[in-house]
Amino acid sequence: MRTALLQSSGRPGSVVGNLKVLDEAAGRAAEAGAGLVVAPEMFLTGYAIGDDIARLAEAADGDSADAVAEIAGRHGVAIAYGYPERAGDAVFNSAQLVSADGVRLVNYRKTHLFGCFERDHFTPGERSVVQAELGGLRVGILICYDVEFPENVRAHALAGTDLLVVPTAQMHPFQFVADSMIPVRAFENQMYVAYVNRVGREGEFEFVGLSTLAGPDGIARTRAGREDALVLADADPAFLAASRAANPYLQDRRPGLYGSLV
Fold it and tell me: What is the mean pLDDT of the chain?
């Protein structure tokens, strides 16, 4: 499945503006043969927008979700995107996957909140693995800091995730995560990992870009630079199956030795 990584901070504070950016990117991705577009963490509203996070937060089936579904259906391409989710009095840092025919497939709430900023504005999610079938692949979702916990990615591997999409807001000086950690996560768990970042400065944060899709061989299939970009690469089920046969990490595990880890 050809996967398009939308590296952009969009228009922080403007849901309407960000929907326009997403619409344009979805059109370009569809023309290039993509089956999936992945946008960054908190793409619909912006990340470093302070109390506007709560003001702009919406339900998973709210107006913005309907707008994304319309974009996906009109261009015939699935979309994964980050947004602040309102559920009662709680606000979650969430990501949602919408199919190419505009059906909401799965919603994920970030489980590991990074730093005081996120802990001040969000409630952590409690479900570590969510998945959906898409384009012949089992697609799972994590958000940014979540992927830095090996237990999270291994849980996805054990649940059969083939392509892990990771909307992110990864900032300076932690660019080694995109450069080094993501390819290692893909290799040690025998999956594709699509890590899609914001760019530029927002408030106190400087986002470093470097979005990548890494394969189960630990090699980046594509990598963006430090500017706005739409980059594409393929997640190939046949290559994934061959790689898993040649690298039997999951079969060679000895879980009985790992009890002390939890």
Answer: 97
| Strands 220-223 vs 163-167: parallel, antiparallel or unpaired | unpaired
Q: Which residues are catalytic?
A: 41, 110, 144
Q: Rounded to the nearest 5°, which phi and psi values hold at 227?
A: -120, 170
Scored b (16 or more CB within 10 A) or e, 2-36 reads bbbbbbbbbebbbbeebbebbbebbebbbeeebbb
Q: CA nearest 172: which of 214, 200, 150, 196?
A: 200
- pLDDT value of position 260: 81
pLDDT confidence band for 127 (50 / 70 / 90): very high
**Number of helices followed by number of strands (H, E) in the chain:** 9, 14
H or E segment at 23? Answer: helix 15-31
Neighbouring residues of 48: CB distance < 8 A, sequence distance ≥ 6: 12, 117, 202, 203, 204, 205
CA 237 – CA 23 distance, rounded (Å): 28
> For the whole model, what pTM was predicted?
0.96
In the block, residue with structure tokens 């944060």: 205
Q: Are the beta carbons of 109 and 122 closer than 8 angstroms?
A: no
Look up tokens 């799972």; give the residue. 140
Q: How confident is the model at residue 261 (pLDDT cuts 50, 70, 90)?
A: confident
Give, for 137, the enclosing helix (H) or strand (E).
Answer: strand 137-141
Q: What is the pLDDT of residues 128-157, one digit of tens each?
A: 999 999 999 999 999 999 999 999 999 999
